[in-house]
Amino acid sequence: MAVSSAAPAAGGCPLEARPAPGATKSAFVTVGTTCFDELIAAVSAAPCLRVLRGLGYGRLVLQIGRGTRAPRPVRAPDFALEVFRFKDSLAEDLRQADLVISHAGAGSCLETLGEGKPLVVVINETLMDNHQLELARQLRRDGHLVYCTCSTLAETLQSVDLSLLKPFPPGRPEKFAAFLDDVLGLE
């Protein structure tokens, strides 16, 4: 796990974005193994930080992957901004989060939904043949997540009612195992 100590890019974490005293909720942002600097820039910009603060978030954890944008970590009595590139597992970060903001990678989406966490997916509009958009659209149609773009992230966070999201059904690995047993003639 590498914790970034790089200087903030273009303004870093604005001081006016500190949450109200007593804010205890935690938001986790993940870009997976990719570079998605636009998401990191959007979520660490003043408009998003103000919205998160207004919603009671006092902790923001950014997993920046291969990105070049690394906001400076902040520790204050009423606000924490943590930044890291990679970890062996994001399971603990997901468990601690009250909200997950993620790129639209299948692994990140399914792991987050499997943990039962509210998920806002941010579409990377710079990708050619954006298959991630297809996944986000289907999961939104099914009521499991909300998706937006970097330019609409603050507005989406402000307006969405996360309590309306439907739980993602748990996997049923025993069915897959039975299918494999049948196909392979093991049982």
Automatic annotation (TrEMBL):
InterPro entries: Alg13-like, Glyco_trans_28_C
Enzyme Commission number(s) of this protein: 2.4.1.141
A Pfam family matched in the record: Glyco_tran_28_C
CC terms in the record's Gene Ontology section: endoplasmic reticulum
Gene Ontology biological process terms in this record: dolichol-linked oligosaccharide biosynthetic process
Coiled-coil boundaries: none
Subcellular localization(s) per the UniProt record: Endoplasmic reticulum
Primary location: endoplasmic reticulum
Residue ranges constituting the Glycosyl transferase family 28 C-terminal domain according to the UniProt record: 28-172
Keywords: Endoplasmic reticulum, Glycosyltransferase, Transferase
Keyword Endoplasmic reticulum listed: yes
Entries under Gene3D superfamilies matching the protein: Glycogen Phosphorylase B
Name the UniProt record assigns to this protein: UDP-N-acetylglucosamine transferase subunit ALG13
Species assigned in the record: Alligator mississippiensis
Taxonomic placement: Eukaryota, Metazoa, Chordata, Craniata, Vertebrata
